[in-house]
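#onboarding

Welcome to the new folks! Below is a worked example of what a typical request in this channel looks like: someone posts a single protein sequence, and someone else replies with the predicted structure as tokens. Don't worry about understanding the tokens yet, we'll cover that in week two.

Example request:
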Amino acid sequence: MEKLFIYDTTLRDGAQTEGISYSLQDKINIAKKLDDFGVSFIEGGWPFSNPKDTEFFEYFKKHPLKNAKVVPFGSTAHPSKPASKDKNLLSLVKSDTEYVTIFGKTWDLHVKDILKIPLEDNIKIISESVQFLKKQGKKVFYDAEHFFDGFKANPAYALKTINTAIAAGADLVVFCDTNGGTLTWHALDIIRQVKEKLSINNFGMHCHNDLDLAVANSIAAVNCGCTHIQGTVNGLGERCGNADLVSIMAILQLKMGYGIVPQNKMALLTHISHYVSEVSNVAHRDNHPFVGKSAFAHKGGVHIDAVNKNPLAYEHALPSLVGNKSRFIVSELAGKTTLVVKAKELEFDLDKKSPQAVRIHKLIQQLEREGYQFEAADGSFKLLLNKEFKRYKKFFTLLGFRVSVEKRDDGRLISEAVIKLKINDKFEHSAAEGDGPVNALDNALRKALAKFYPTVSQMHLTDFKVRVLDEKNGTAAKVRVLIQSQDADEDWSTIGVSENIIEASWQALLDSVEYKLLKDSKNK
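Example response:
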């Protein structure tokens, strides 16, 4: 089986995602993770476009990666300058890397309407740009921008552009679906026509996801002989994103038998995916194939019962192969099998036919009718089980709290919470301010608990969601509050439901803190 190369462009194309801005250290850290994982090439950025990308390549001159090759990105020379004096090309040379990537115009529309030069002048630019880089001792990847649109519009010209790059010395041509608008069977038909007319055997694929086909088109290209796949972690990228390398690598290795990375490294795929989301400061998609929280989650009772007997019944691959795990979601749909499995995970012995199982199942059904949703609140569910199994101790008792919001003359809106607790037969009275009522209440609660349970300082709230459950009741509607919390070891979700948003928030906050205290007490 022919060797396949993964070319990651998260740090360049992925950085063009709306709302993402990587620092230099972010880019260095992601590159090191990808290198350890085993990708072949890491496109670090466009050094001509900004100083940060120049510094990135300067860093890796002094601290070379172990496995991957860092690659700078640029364009063919500007029409107004010879290649040898083009600052963009000179910045690629100055990056001092073995490989460089440049893109050139393939679609005659871009040559005529964007560059506004004769078609033959573009051919000359491609040839001179590649020749210049080859004379500097570089291995050149040539990205044929808008290749599929260009081939549909003017097949002869599109083919001429890539053969020009090859004749000038390009080591690889990459077919780019830059607008992301190509259907899979059209891409296959074009690739089959073109590859027979290339003077080199290897080619690459670079897909955008505007039709949600970037992964499918990339995999299809491999079946057509493609040996080089470009994309980004989690499909980050401009507009609808790029081809998702997470899914692509998992499919190629687990379903098609390619040795993309060492098998022991494939188990890091979920970690890599979540790490990039974290550094990018974007929420990780729960339903992300292979690596999402819900990728191997089961909610229906029939599914859960079957998976508990044989995972292959409803799972297409072993979750552990990509570092993920099966999850059984608690809801009114799940049945008692879920309770048994969840209880076993928590080291509780629960018989599916026991009165206890029946009682807990009915309790969950009742709570979900009231608006609770335990599939999104694992922390609250674990607390519920601990209480039902009498493995829970009460850490404190609430005597009362008060929350106020004050609009001050300087325009600031200040929230203050006052709380009274009974802890180990001692009374604790605390007050704190916050950015909002819930933040103030959280601060006051943890301030009161800190001298008795110091580890509460190690946790923090990472997300707060409110959903109105019965909109027709207007401001009197019942609301569901979900709070996400984390410490150094794990993250957990808790829930509260009430017609009063402060009360619902308190319920979720109380569960969050109690989960942390219970967890720490068991680890002592």
